[in-house]
Amino acid sequence: MKAGSKLERMLESGNFxxxxxxxxxxxxNGEIVRHHARMLKGYCExxxxxxxxxxxxxxxxxxxxxxxxxxxxxxxxxIVCRDRNRIAIQSDVLGATALGMKxxxxxxxxxQKFGNHPTSKNVYDVDSIQLIKILDGMRNGYFANGEEMKxxxxxxxxxxxxxxxxxxxxxxxxxxxKKADAGADFTQTQCVLDMxxxxxxxxxxxxxxxxxxxxxxxxxxxxxxxxAAKYMNKYVAGMMVSQEYIxxxxxxxxxxAEGVNIACEQIEYxxxxxxxxxxxxxxxAWEEIVPEICKRTGLNPRPEV
Amino acid sequence: xIIAERKPIxxxxxxxxxxxxxxxxxxxxxxxxCLAGGEKEVGILSSQLTxxxxxxxxxxxxxxxxxxxxxxxxxxxxIRHIVKxxxxxxxxxxxxxxxxxxxxxxxxIVWPGVNTKFLGVNLNVGEWAERCQACGQCVLDKTxxxxxVARCSxxxxxxxxxxxxxxxxxxxxxxxxxxxxxxDRLTRLGEVDSLREILPVKDWSYSRDGGPxxxxxxxxxxxxxx
Lengths: 305, 226
Fold this sequence. Notes:
CATH architecture of chain A: Alpha-Beta Barrel
Shape of chain A: globular
Number of domains of chain A: 1
Number of strands of chain B: 9
Distance between the termini of chain A: 13 Å
CATH class of chain A: Alpha Beta
Helix content of chain B: 25-40%
Largest sheet of chain A: 8 strands, parallel, barrel
Structural class of chain A: alpha/beta
Number of domains of chain B: 2
Largest interface: A-B, 36 and 33 residues
CATH architecture of the largest domain in chain B: 3-Layer(aba) Sandwich
CATH topology of chain A: TIM Barrel
Number of helices of chain A: 11
Strand order of the largest sheet of chain B: 3-2-4-5
Largest sheet of chain B: 4 strands, parallel
CATH class of the largest domain in chain B: Alpha Beta
Oligomer: heterodimer
Radius of gyration of chain B: 22 Å
Strand content of chain B: 15-25%
Strand order of the largest sheet of chain A: 1-2-3-4-5-6-7-8
CATH topology of the largest domain in chain B: Rossmann fold
């Protein structure tokens, strides 16, 4: 065990694993985080806490993680490379682990152009793969400069993202391999909204045996509207929504219900896919739907580990 | 080459509002090539300024001059007699030239007439693009001759990030993804497997992050007998 988190134990047990996501609010109102934690408690092994997602200032992921711990929910702290240099990141890693957080997810971060402070300066002192390597070094007792820690190293279960829907397609597999080489233990993929492309990517992943080196959780996002689906497909870089899903939503009488149907079918399908260790359900601004999806797909109650 | 763009006329008029006589000083280097601050642009800007100030009934006397380079102290020597008689200098050189000019004339106000944009290349008539950030430690050997520091929006070393689609950057459909370019070029060269290596964290101390940089070459100092 690297950190002994619930997430790590569930993945190691071989049970189909479920992670969720909570987006901290644009305020200091921690009760919003607490509310979502209570709503989702018991449905997932751990919950990602986004780090100023889409470059919009929000309550910090580590502070939100502390609230989750108080609610007996396991946090998965996201760290993006956009806003902090290696000094600040390592300091935050020490701080988060001191507070009892064990899962950390390493990301590049959305460019600040998309956020509410587009005139800010970005950092990118290190990139997401280098960040994984830094965290791996830290849990082995070394700072990024090679200096040996004088005290007990932080115990971290290291995560990363993978995006099978970005380009160049084949290189996406190499990039996951680099993340595994750097020390990542698990990966959560971008929302799978084009199963055909995802399957092609997984074939390449399996061909390189990567699924045996890194636990892969497929991203699930229930679609809420036709407009959102079309927008993601057309305007969000690195996202794809298959025409099949768009057609289904367009024909549906109850679009939201059809979105949930699609998500549930995807989960059932992914359960049988070789190399898939679980799902990462991202229902930002629709958190209340997660329990229903988990119950319908037999992912609730969760096994004990 | 250093790419610059002339400041808007309104801004320049604002800078010069309290002066009666100024020297509009062009540079024969990069800004001449990128059509921002050479002899021709000095002429055009001077006419615009003269006209605008006449309209305001506050005439502005302008002396026009373009020197070989404003990033070398020696070229300022020949214009000392002109500078003596003006209230201020409007330099159309890049940021380096403007500062050298101010250093050459410590008692004279020197205004910037251009915005220095980047180190780049001329792609087409009226189109320039950034190519180098002068980070101090070149990595082009590892990236197929395409710079991730200057050309990736996130300056990452192990790209492309998840925002690369159809060869374009997430920041704008008009921006090429540098890592897609690197990937494609190395594929063409049969070297794409080299990208499986993790490029280590960069030593930014060679870049601006180490503080203002200075280069001293002792071999040249010795040669010159200093």
